[in-house]
Design a protein that fits this description.
single chain, alpha+beta, 17% strand, dioxygenase
Length: 343
């Protein structure tokens, strides 16, 4: 009891100390991507942006949707066969997990530890709650999917800077994750330089725990964890659950209702790093929601891999998007080579 009181007093002290610094509780204005600024002129931007001739969408409309709603949907963006092939690769990893020591292929246990897949029983890898983190480092096919030209074009337009891959997750079942925004956890040097993609690897059923998102929530006031808008296990005064409660209450107060998203295989949802979203309840545990989730930033915000001790990381360029090799496991970069043959 005494230790809990001391911990609470320490956290309170850190919160007061932070507030005395008068630090900003929002994204810093001068670092915002152009489209998030009050003077953003979408029509003028589109006139000068070099949109590929084979880009099958109305870029101006997409950018307005992004500005106003915080997300866009690219229908039929990725060849379904690529996605079938990608999931077949994942199944191979799970079935033969003893072969893989790749740290980027992990199961995240309930205690938050990340473990190489070869150390995880197959039944756990196959179960609800299992995720493969940073799978793209090991897979040429995953790199091709996450940097498909349609995605690359839109991300280049949103940032109007060089784009880089930040992080990826692959999972079989719905996440059932509470309402959250990505920027407090998926962090680089500039908090506002963050976008994400959800790429369903199968058609989504309403009973499989589909994604729920809150249109326009990216414009809500940022949550103060007591030490700023970014979460820290050691320093933050408030918990992720309190963050979820804040988002649910604030969305309701502002009349923002959650929308369930039922995409088809080949469609892609791209969302702003501050869009509130979560995973709904899985009503039928027999149903899967095979998903590939990717995060993106800019080279200015994410100039090297976060595990890199030196000044630069080994990198590849895919459709103009930079992907850093994992410096802790270079030997198994691109060990899944089937993607070379995908057309």
């Amino acid at each position: 009891m005494e230790s809990k009181l001391k911990d609470k007093l320490r956290r309170l002290y850190r919160m007061v100390k932070f507030r005395m610094k008068n630090s900003p509780l929002d994204f810093e204005e001068d670092t915002l991507p152009w489209i998030d600024r009050s003077d953003a002129n979408i029509d003028a931007f589109v006139k000068t942006f070099k949109t590929p001739k084979d880009f099958p969408y109305d870029l101006a409309k997409l950018l307005r949707d992004w500005r106003d709603n915080g997300y866009v949907i690219l229908e039929k963006a990725i060849p379904p066969q690529w996605l079938d092939n990608l999931w077949q690769e994942v199944e191979e990893v799970v079935e033969n997990n003893e072969k893989y020591s790749v740290k980027s292929l992990v199961y995240q246990f309930n205690d938050g530890k990340e473990t190489p897949v070869k150390e995880v029983p197959k039944e756990k890898l196959r179960g609800i709650g299992s995720r493969l983190l940073e799978y793209h480092n090991s897979s040429i096919g995953a790199k091709k999917v996450m940097t498909h030209p349609h995605l690359a074009t839109f991300l280049d337009a949103v940032f109007n800077e060089k784009t880089t891959v930040f992080q990826s997750l692959i999972f079989k079942y719905g996440s059932q994750q509470g309402t959250h925004q990505d920027y407090p956890w998926v962090r680089s040097k500039i908090a506002s330089h963050l976008a994400a993609a959800w790429i369903p690897l199968e058609d989504v059923s309403p009973d499989s725990g589909p994604l729920v998102y809150y249109p326009g929530s990216h414009r809500l006031p940022k949550f103060d964890f007591g030490t700023g808008i970014l979460f820290s296990e050691q320093d933050s005064f408030y918990t992720p659950d309190e963050f979820t409660n804040y988002l649910n209450k604030t969305c309701a107060k502002n009349g923002i209702k959650g929308t369930i998203l039922l995409l088809k295989k080949g469609d892609v949802l791209l969302w702003h790093g501050a869009l509130a979203h979560g995973g709904s309840r899985i009503n039928n545990p027999a149903l899967t929601r095979k998903s590939f989730v990717c995060h993106y930033s800019t080279l200015r915000s994410y100039p090297k891999h976060r595990f890199e001790e030196g000044d630069k990381s080994i990198a590849q360029l895919h459709n103009g998007i930079t992907i850093y090799a994992n410096p802790t496991n270079l030997a198994e970069e691109d060990v899944m080579t089937a993607g070379k043959e995908w057309n």
